[in-house]
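can u pls check wat happens w/ S-adenosylmethionine
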Amino acid sequence: MPDTSSSAAPREAFAERLLQSALSTMETCCVYLGDRLGLYRALQDRGPCTAAELAAAASVDRRYAREWLEQQAMAGILVVDVSTDPEARRYTLSAEHAEVLLDSDSLSWLAPVVQLVVGLTGPLPSLLQAFRTGEGIAWSAYGADGREGQAGQNRPAFLNLLGTEWLPAISEIHARLGADPPARVADVACGAAWSSIGIARAYPKVHVDAFDLDDASVTLARANVAEAGLAHRVRVTAIDAGDAALAGRYDLVTIFEALHDMSRPVEVLRKARVMLAPGGAVLVMDERAAETFQPPGDTVERLLYGFSVLGCLPTGLAEQPSAATGTVMRPATLRAYALEAGFRDVEVLPIAHDLFRFYRLHPPGPAGS
Ligand SMILES: C[S@@+](CC[C@H](N)C(=O)[O-])C[C@H]1O[C@@H](n2cnc3c(N)ncnc32)[C@H](O)[C@@H]1O
């Protein structure tokens, strides 16, 4: 007998949605395989390939290559002409899909998000335990996939937008970065240093001191800086941004997509304030979380909570005591942190971005200002 109860439709809809989610997870993992094994790259370099040709080009097993190609065609990622013998079928990667999967300069490049999401699943056994104990998980436990995925997902924006749109939109900071004497920038929690590189490229006079506490990120950052030919103006140091040993006088202190990850954000903001040169500015870029908690959420809120449960909250709890912020740092939370750290005011900057919000933190001015 068909179930005609009033709960049948919502139940079926939810079951269908969960099935689609499970399917998306598997397809995401298959994209990860194609990215990490160089299968998409081989398809782009060689043009349409049979399974045997792809296997040879990417040095993978032919049977696995065929199964993956068929899966990719079924998922609508690759195109194939099925009129030929299965072994002779050639699979094509379109230019549009290639841009999303392979073009590291494109703002549409999404392969790093896939890598990051897969990286977030790596420590799931530890996360089960962490939920029970309240302990955290070090960022290093998310491995190369976490680190490289995080770095790659912000790379195009840091290289294409940071120095050409975002900073020029803040006229006072833009003017200082272009002026003499050469400005000094502290890029706090720099990760792979794409933000430092973006700033140094856009402003040829500035010197950037980039800091991160994760040794593997610092190694990656130094390699990126060297490859960019900027080692004479961008110096990367492994240090906790709240460390008493951190010193210097900076015209600009930046914290890109990292404040919510920090165990002690107030301490780091206080340090950032103390390091400011007269007239200096603190710029924080963090997730564009909604002002208030209003479930069910839109794509951004759902993404942020996914990242938070799997990655940012556990990494924030890795050191104790911790503010335990999580990815969903709403503007009021940041404001409270900034005021506690001794800032006078927090300004939300009119820079448009789907995922990020930009804050300028104003230190107390000279008496009377
Ligand atoms: C989500 S990643 C962002 C990296 C980079 N800013 C970006 O946008 O790609 C967060 C980074 O913050 C670093 N981090 C967290 N707490 C820190 C602290 N107290 N001092 C320095 N770095 C810290 C982590 O090691 C990690 O590289």
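The mean pLDDT is 96.
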